[in-house]
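Appendix B.2, paired examples.
Example (i):
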Amino acid sequence: MCGITGIITTAQTRIDQAGVRRMTESILHRGPDDNGYFWGNQVAFGHCRLSIIDAAGGRQPMLSADEGVVLTYNGEIYNFQFLRRELEGLGHSFKTECDTEVLLVAYLEWGADCVHRLRGMFAFAIWDNRKGELFLARDRLGIKPLYYASLPDGTFLFASELKALLQYPGLNRRLRLDALEDYLALGYVPDPKSILVGVEKLPPAHCLRLSKNTGKFELYRYWQLDMVTPPVVHEESEELLERLEEAVKLRMIADVPLGAFLSGGIDSSVVVGLMSRNNDKPVETCSVGSDVPEFDESGYAQMVADHFGAHHRMRLISAHDASLIDVMADVYDEPFADMSALPTYRVCALARETVKVALSGDGGDELFGGYRRYRFHMLEEQFRSAIPQMIRSAIFGPLSRVYPKMDWAPQFMRAKSTLEGLARNSAQAYFQSVAKTPDRDRSRLQSDRMKKQLNGYHPQERFEELADQIKGAHPLSVVQYIDINTYLPGDILTKVDRASMAHSLEVRVPLLDHKFFEWGMRLGPESRIVDGEGKAAFKRAARGFIPNEIIDRPKKGFNIPAGQWMREELAPMLEGLCESEVLLDTGLISRSGLRAMVGEHLASKRDHHASLWCILMLDRTLAKLDASPA
């Protein structure tokens, strides 16, 4: 795993070598083992390396034999040995044993089409001096990040993290208002936007070509999940584990100590079990436990470790970990409000004490329908499909407006969100179900200036756009597709990438192997949720392989007791937000709206913990970014 940076300039100006070094040094945590640079004619690449395979031979940036092509690359190509044999059969020879050289030679042989042959996680840049062209690519599901910016003076920048681009003095630091609104709604900034005007993220499964002569670039998609074709119908349990085992085995190739995260959930338990089946020694596993019993899953993790004979380490951490709040702003660059980032950061630190590579169980919920919100959505969808939206809007819209918001009440009495969902179309309703800050509360937080400048923009537009891309698909497939293109890369994978890279730890995700993922999506939606139970197909496959107690227990999730924490230890911090200069001087946040929400939360009149955590992390991140209002 690595960090990459680069500058291309179309103007007849010299590359600022000191600037490229500053960009690269700002992300040395991604690759502290080695660093290198390529200096070309109006082109420069930087690279910091976390050495995993062929430590001696895999130095980057890597040049072709004729020095006409240069590569800087972050990731792992798991099928590199197969590709190497194929390329050797085509007459190519190799000097190293690393996947980097295989990727470089694959480009020499197949050009931009090489991405179709890659099985792995990656974000890479290739400078092809023969064509005067820069080529960028990102893996299919967005496991590895890549930011870029095209500046008015003809300079093009790219880097693994936003903090590297911020080292370049000509970068615009104005806040992007629609991205800020997305963040307030979702708790993250979804691809391809960033929080800054003019800085973009290369979307998953996309490539970018830039001509040095013209300064113009082309962005295109090279892979798309098929969510519309009728699914394959067959008994999948045995084949599921076989296919996942292949993905796990590919991710166990490393020249350094390797282990796994073990939460005690189904996904990580199956991954650890498959690793154990293919390892002569006990698998190194780790987890963190909470000092609040209802959030602690460490006993289940230990049960799985004992079942498979893993060497397990657990560390108890405080659920109230205020010391990490400012650290998170440094780690994520953009505002990021997933509270599970705190324990994720801690478990990555624990893993790095003994291993350099860890496998995780991320992706199972998106693939096999494991989120509870999917089940609720499908229940609502049955109702929506039975009554035309015009009628639903006329009946349930007014009801939702008069029904009180009762966060304190038992679940069956909290009908306001359900009524709102029934009044909307499917994509709109799903957006509201995942929003950390609902429309009514975002409106309270927005200043008049922000409302005016947003000019009617609503973050649910992206959800509706994605739903339109797969019209005719099963309703469950539609919301999974939305998550795969928003929540998975924007939240889950961002959280793990930054937390792990902050500790120079590589995390591999076998459930997101694109071949396994494609196959899993070809299983019928009816195999994902059965009798109100999510992840049904995966549970059937896992039964008899992992302990039944793991399969049958309620899902907790990797989180912290946020609401009460924010009424106790963090209460002064919340009150301080109402006077924060860095936050309020933007002119985008309403002081009166924020003060009212803080007061309601501290008085236990409403539960605003998710919304207020968004504001808290925004405040801390703005202080680091030194960004100006749009």
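Example (ii):
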Amino acid sequence: MTWSIDTAPLLPLPLILAAAAVALVLMAVAFWRRQRGAPLRAAALVLLILALLDPSIQRENREPLTSIAAIVVDRSESQALPGRTEATDEALQALTERLSRLRNVETRIVEAGRDDSGTADGTELFDKLAESLADVPPERFAGTLMITDGQVHDVPKSAESFGFDGPLHVLLTGKKDEQDRRIVVERAPRYGLVGSEQTVVLRYVDEGGDQSPARMVIRRNDDEVGAVVMVPGEKTEVPVEITHGGKNIFEFEIDAHPEELTTQNNRAVVAVKGIRENLRVLLVSGEPHSGERTWRDLLKSDASVDLVHFTILRPPSKQDGTPINQLSLIAFPTRELFSEKIDEFDLIIFDRYRRRGVLPSLYFDNITQYVRNGGAILIAAGPDFADPGSLSRTTLAEVLPATPTGVVLEQPYRAHVNELGERHPVTRGLPGAASDPPDWSRWFRLIAAETATGQTVMTGADNQPLLVLSRVDKGRVALLLSDHVWLWARSFENGGPHGPLLRRLAHWLMKEPDLEEEGITLEARGRDLVVRRQTLGETVDPVTVTTPTGKTETVDLQRLDPGLWEALVPATEIGLYSASDGTRTALASVGPANPREFSAMRSTDEKLRPMAEETHGSVRRLAEDGGNIDVPNVVALKGRTSFAGSGWVGLRTTDASVLKGIDRLPLFAGLLGLALLLGILSLTWFREGR
């Protein structure tokens, strides 16, 4: 309850002030001349001025408001280390009980430090605290009790910039002199050409240790590729090779010390996106035909493909008197292409090629060896494949997945994706394949062949093989037993999916990871992980997912499409996850590749002490030298400049209140004011009459 005096002038205030000034002059003159009755006249004038001001006694009925104290609990990954979670929970319970005993103090518990979106990098406690106090006026803020290991990454530059005036008390978990090793990525490339060597610069830090050298293992996509010895504090350049397109994940793991705090930050991850230099494709057309331009247009439409195309218009055996300089713009450089530079091509396509003496037998030996060493060949066969000039009658037959029977089927049919093809990534989900018959145009020629190796993924007339895929040692071979794919490209009978089919076929031959028949991928989507398994089998085994802290979970996959299985796994931690079916392993990083949360995990007071001292708070450990948890007492203080002492911490209480009502008692209104004025006037008249 608050008492005060208020006024409600009956006349404009300037007019009243002018009248008061005149009255003051008159009273001064009267007292100077020592006139009779001057005091009574002065009293009458004062009462008159007061009556014009209409003073009143005002009583405010106020209800005191509680002061708001916040307990910020750090639930970040570094707080999950042994002993820290237990200490945090025990301290939280003790503080909650002690704050509940304080009068007019309201407690807010803020759980912070764990990011559910997967986008934050580091422990953010102050942002969460500010969000929790958004509805609290600054004058009601009592202070903050923060339970953390001290590794906080959003500490304000000053208490003033934070916007709340109250002491910060930090209760540290963990021990004072902890030992920890970690790897710091100083510089890493984001992109690299496939086949090139990039350099990653790393630094080994041994905090609290004996600063001894340590061995670091290098892994690429979970396969160990090397090791180096690192000296603490020195930068080390590590060369890494980009082996394939897409994401190449490199792990660098330092050997663990038996007494170190944790091994979670002994590993650093670098993801380098492999970019293929323009793919070099050699297209050799045996003769001009209607489908020749289909291959050329498809390959030329891709800006990442460098195409070398030769069409053999005239065999060397033909003699018609045409001058040599009129036969072609340039001579067919067979020796250069098939002997000296054959390994520079990513793919060789033979389009209706027939042996005519242009390529000697020795060059076919080179092509066979090129395939075995990791090269790729696509044969688009026409009637040439069934006659005596067929490529199957060369040494190339060693790597071909099918042998022609010599029969050419000239009849209309629709290409079908067979049961195996429905599961193969090259032909799975082709537009129009789901209907029966397939919703694409007919073809009219098929080269009959008997498959010896490989996988038939499409069939034609009389269920004969149409598209056969094969792996030979390190290389790959594809055999398309028809030259009528151009009918789809020309939109005959509404055409067909020639673009997706031929593009996937070329990328499978060039070993694109997304088109592997047997593969497992792991993809991060926010705070979820998508485990995807491609297989030609009917069933898949469960997958084991390993978290950054080493926890494992067995996941059963659900069938999405033929040959494609998937599962969604919540990602409760940030860092590098792995998924394995026992044979294949995939990696994915949730959040930053090298999160700040794991970069330093030792308990420290260096980051929060300046803020605590500026707010007249304190920093203390919950347990010294591994002893029992010691939680300080909490007291409410008012008007202090220090809020901490031995065994206790203080919170700032305020006089904040809310107005519930106002009572007013006018002093010069009604009979009371009239009686005072008449009384003083009568007394003045009486005094003047004597």
